[in-house]
Amino acid sequence: MSGHTPGPWIIEEGHIQRDSGGIRYWQVSDGQDAIACNQFCYADESQANARLIAAAPQMLAALEALLHQAIQTKLSTEEWGRAAINEARAAIELARGVS
What secondary structure does DSSP assign to 54-88, as a single string? Predict the structure, then answer.
């Protein structure tokens, strides 16, 4: 994986006019190019998906910072802390495309 498009990402609402009517959709972009869009779900679901996708760079950065801090503290010595650290590592690896 070569890396992801740097944030911040923004949500843009769009509308496509068709002969059978219009389709409302949500798109996530970096302000210039579309990163992800969804026009085949219900509008509420599309908007919720777009919000989650747009928040991904910030969530990844926050999780990485929390993981770093957790490793530096006594959290890593507690059984539940080790489990949380392992889950955070797995999520970060998934986001980074590490298998």
Answer: HHHHHHHHHHHHHHHHHHHSGGGGSHHHHHHHHHH
